Amino acid sequence: VSWGDVEAHARGSRSGLVCLTAGVRDLGAERLAHLADLFGKDNVFLELERHHVRDEERENERRLALARKTRFPVVATGDVRYASPARARLCDVLTCIKEHVPLDRAGTRLFKNAERHLRGAEEVSRLFADLPAAVEHTELVAERFNPRQFLADFRADPDKYLRGSPEGMPV
């Protein structure tokens, strides 16, 4: 996704869209200021993730320091790729298809473990027990999100994607 695409979508969205920063390269004060211009300062959150992989806490500490310096809130997220740990293998297969490599040669293209699954509120609270504000912000983001409007912003038929899903959330 290009910055032009992000800018065009951010300015026209009514879905309660927020900007989560996990995939943003070169994240620093200047990049955060740019994101705040696009999304509004109240809609930009620095993501913290815990997947039990090496160096992840070092990145979380860097983001926490940046949050303190810039006064942007942090949010506890999981970079969710599948509903349950049992689906991690399917994610690996889909990654291999996307990357045009056999599973036995995918190496570092695959995630290191099966920790990118949906988690309930209690599990997130335990995982981020030392950062209660991040958990509170996660709840705030979830409450503000409107999946029906989000899909409409992308000219997708909400009824097609939300039919039969619990509480109107995509399955």
Description:
This protein is mainly α. Helices cover 47% and strands 7% of the residues. The protein has eight helices and three strands. The protein has a three-stranded parallel β-sheet. The longest helix is centred in the middle third of the chain and has 15 residues, at 56-70. It starts with a helix and ends in a 9-residue tail after the last helix.
How do the strands and helices of this protein lay out in sequence?
Layout: H1 3-12, E1 19-20, H2 29-39, E2 44-49, H3 56-70, E3 74-77, H4 88-99, H5 121-127, H6 132-144, H7 147-153, H8 158-162
General shape:
globular
Radius of gyration (CA) equals: 17 Å
SSE-based structural type: mainly alpha
Number of strands: 3
Report the uncertain regions.
167-171
Fraction of residues in helix: 40-55%
Q: How much is the average pLDDT?
A: 84
Order of helices and strands: HEHEHEHHHHH
Q: Quote the beta fraction.
A: 5-15%
Give the number of helices.
8
For the biggest β-sheet, the strand order reads 1-2-3
In whole angstroms, the N-to-C terminal distance is 23 Å
Mind summarizing the main beta sheet?
A: 3 strands, parallel
